Amino acid sequence: MSPFQPILIAIAIATLVIAITALARRLPIPSPILQVIAGLGLGFIPGMPVPQLEPDLVFFVFLPPILWAAAFFTSVREFKQNLRPISLLAVGLVFVTTAVVAIAARALLPGLPWAVAVAIGAIVSPPDAVAAAAVVSRLPVPRRVVVILEGESLVNDAAALVLFRTAVAAAVTGVFSLGEAVVRFFIDAGVGALIGIAVGWCVVRVARWTKDSLAETLLTIAAPYLAWVAAESIHVSAVLACVAGGVYVRQHFSTVISPMSRLQSRAVWDLIVFIINALVFLILGLEFGPIVKQVPVGTLRSVLLAGVAISMVAIVVRLAWVPVATWLPRWMSADVRRRDPVPNPKAVALVAWTGMRGIVSLASALALPIALRNGLPFPYRSEIILITMCVIMITLVVQGLTLTPVIKWFDFAPDHAHHEEERHARREAMRRGSEALEDLARESWADQAEVERIRRELRDRMQHHERNASDLSHRKLRTGVLKAERRMLVRLRNEGAISDETLRLLEEELDHEAVRVGAGDVRG
Fold it and tell me: Domain 5-410 falls in which CATH fold?
């Protein structure tokens, strides 16, 4: 192999990701599905090297930043408000799906040990929120649906991985204890969360000391990996370590990081999450061909049929569980009915239909051991990996392709609650800023002309935000003015009147203003 071949392959994959992303914006198909299809296509190219995925490497490279970012951008207040439905999905549904899939797997695969059947159920039980977010984030969906799906994705991986490891240990050793498994679950979860909080505490303390935007950004990138390694080293939940760490850091991020660091960190993290998500789905497609070849000759058809059947079981269990988990607590408790009335049935149906599987399921399947303690091969290992791939592909295609039309058909009413909350927060922040200005105006060093100028700025900002924030006329006028200013700056740079450095500084001011008025994606 040429020393430049890996570089050329990386460039080709990067180009492919860019092309797929651009295409996905013009087609009613979620980008994860296009990325999986592209991965399948890459697998058919003669001589295309397919990476041998090490499960530990997959978990370590991909999961920590995804989990940390998801936790970082999760609203703790809304998570607490929806703790009951999130718990019923992230823990209750994971356990129920594991049990029902285990029963189905035993019926479909003759001679399958119960412990291995439970491992299959744990592998396919946790949905992956990445694919769902790619669709839901672009369409008008009730805020509570998004919160519940995001909250589920933060916890369900931890529940599924504890079940998976318990089942695999029972299959390898032949020993299983329900009591030990339950105790282990709570120990893994509790200690893992404490480790994440400890890592987050260290990150916050170091960030207070650095005072450097690049160092602070690198610190946030290293933090999820530190939390993961620390938790894995003592065999507790690394998933919850990343989740707890991300939540803890977010609660202190606004006070320990400078504005420039926050802007820079957000841009870097957006790029990292985008690249990881794209690579995950490309790899899923790329691995399908080699996985098919691992299945013993003559059994491929029956294994594929088993994969289809288990996919349907996983989908149907979620469709049945979500309505039951929604209405049963309200039927049993008048207090729950009073505090949380029955939600819109369309929102319940959307949560029930959003159950695509992803990289956690594949990495778990690949993590199955090669042999048992007695030296015999692990039962049905290659078949389980192929079944997992079938579940991922079917749920991605069947549910992923139908999510957009389903959401459009439901035609949810616009959710304006967050707009009112935003207006209230702006008013309170500006009121406090005005009070601070009056206090500072009494200082001996304060220039009264500057004080009056800032007073006018505050009044203008308050009057602007008191108007309808979605005023289309204002936005179009302000966008036109900003585009004209930017073009003049470019013209002055091209004529040699100003330097590129001056252009960059002034353009950054215009970019911040464009984002503020809601024109951050307008070009020109």
Answer: Na+/H+ antiporter like fold (1.20.1530)
